[in-house]
Amino acid sequence: MAPPWTVLYLFGIAIVACAEEASVYTVPPTTFGANGYPNWGAGTWPPSTVGVPLVPQQTESWILSLLDQFDPDRIQSTIQTLVNFGTRHTASTTTSTTRGIGAARQWLLKEMTALAAPSKGLIKVSMPCYEQPAVPADGIPFAVQLCNVQAEITGAVDPNRTYVYTGHYDSRRINNSDYENYAPGADDDASAVAIALEIVRILAPSLAKNPPASSLIIAAVAGEEQGLFGSNFLAQTLKNASVDVQGNFNNDIVGSGSNAPFDPMNEHTIRVFGAGTDYLTLPAEVIQEIITTGYQDDTPARHLGRFIQEVNAGAAQVTDMQVALIYKPDRFFRGGDHESFLKAGFPGIRFTEPQEDFYHQHQDPRVQDGIVYGDEIEYVDFEYTARVGKVNLLSMLSIANAPGTPSNFTYDTEIGFLATSESTPASFLENIIKLYWNTDPSDPLLDHYEIVWRPLASQQWTHMLNVGMETTTILPISKDNAVFGLRAVGKNGMKSPATYALAVASQYFG
Ligand SMILES: *[C@@H]1O[C@H](CO)[C@@H](O)[C@H](O)[C@H]1NC(C)=O
Ligand SMILES: *[C@@H]1O[C@H](CO)[C@@H](O)[C@H](O)[C@H]1NC(C)=O
Ligand SMILES: *[C@@H]1O[C@H](CO)[C@@H](O)[C@H](O)[C@H]1NC(C)=O
Ligand SMILES: *[C@@H]1O[C@H](CO)[C@@H](O)[C@H](O)[C@H]1NC(C)=O
């Protein structure tokens, strides 16, 4: 069937001439967002006769009320306590009760245990350790006992599905092997450990009434600065136990609101770094299909980032934050604990402040040429860290109470493509896509499925379509003009992250 319209370009103006009814189309001016930047990726094209513009999913009020409980004073107190251990270098002393990483982890274990007590056993706090051999080249001059401190909450409906929060409690100086001298590590990364303790404190009394449907782990890890050792131990432990980890929320350097010149917008923005195909632990031919079909921005990590951005947009009046997605595994030539999860085959993203303060990170505290260096607590904005905590807890409770991410979302390669023979039905030759997916009617959380799509160059989904409990649908949209995702919608309205649409290998994603 020929399209009922043709487009003429006249003096740069597109004129759509319809066969049935003549109408004139005038190219709209590029629109500008509140920040004055043009919305090139806002998704005004391709046109669509199905679905509706995406409306950010809304969060239940009991979750929003928990977010109000983040306490900047407690965040300050946790960071100050951690700074007071002098150094938390991974190879620092473990025999002192007041200085070094040993004293720091004992305090964390005690504090987390106390904060978990109101859960009446629903939060299990532990300190798993292992012997990390010396890695002199990377800052561990001799073998050390390396310990994580973690809180585990078992999901009430789908306990195998697990989401992991990480922040590292070790600290460093310019010389990464210097395990003795003062290394306050306030922003990097006591800020994230303070959020971890706040999450445990806030969740503990709420769990009897509102247990999450799937499991949560809140961890303060060590050995980050020398090679992501603690997070690797955690991720590999979970992998070896066949735990279904569907997301790592890694927070690292989430405290600075004061690096001058500092735009007020930055004080209400958190970056979420998501890796592309480079970390996918998939067969090479699957990665090849992802790249050749233009789905390289649709890794599980980036889907997780989109999920966080969307949920936050629906609750921004409470978090007072916006989420900036960064399509990079991490910052320039740097890394973090989410990579341990990515390497284990789990989706992981990194939260980091929008404008890093290099004067006050990894630096030996000192004054040089009139400039003050060092990762001291006075450069942390506790209100900002509290807002980052809100985005984390919002996202983690939303994802943990949504149905699991659906699987096996595929499309027909013969429909919406060239004919292969004269017997190819004419109905196959449209600019359409036929999608298929697996349903899981036994999932007690599930209400229905939803297809989402966006122009390829848009970061966020722009459209959504309720497809009920069907297992297939045809959309009148060219698969070259949009990228498609499928998500599960819960009875509580919460929606899973989206999954890939791939022609041949979607069973790898769930
Ligand atoms: C770094 O610190 C270690 C441990 O104190 C020391 O042995 C080494 O000499 C230091 N390196 C430099 C370049 O100062
Ligand atoms: C995971 O299993 C591998 C293979 O058995 C083993 O080498 C590794 O030590 C295990 N890691 C952890 C953290 O349990
Ligand atoms: C948890 O999920 C993983 C990944 O789907 C699976 O391999 C494992 O068998 C499951 N474990 C249990 C106890 O169901
Ligand atoms: C994935 O979907 C395809 C097409 O609907 C189906 O043939 C296949 O059996 C499914 N694979 C799995 C693992 O469910």
What does this structure look like?
Residues 1-19 form the signal peptide. Its cofactor is Zn(2+). It is an enzyme of class 3 (hydrolase). Keywords: Hydrolase, Metal-binding, Protease, Signal, Zinc. Belongs to the peptidase M28 family. M28B subfamily. By secondary structure, the chain is α+β, with helices and mostly antiparallel strands. The chain has two domains: 5-59 and 405-508, Immunoglobulin-like (Sandwich); 61-401, Zn peptidases (Aminopeptidase, 3-Layer(aba) Sandwich), CATH 3.40.630.10. Helix content is 24%, strand content 23%. It contains eleven helices and 21 strands. The strands form six sheets. An eight-stranded mixed beta sheet has the order 4-7-9-8-10-13-11-12, sandwiched between helices. Strand 18 (446-455) and strand 19 form a beta hairpin. Helix 1 packs antiparallel against helix 11 and helix 4 (186-203) crosses helix 11. The model is unreliable at 1-19 (pLDDT under 50). It binds 2-acetamido-2-deoxy-beta-D-glucopyranose (4 copies). One 2-acetamido-2-deoxy-beta-D-glucopyranose is lined by residues 233, 236-237, 240.
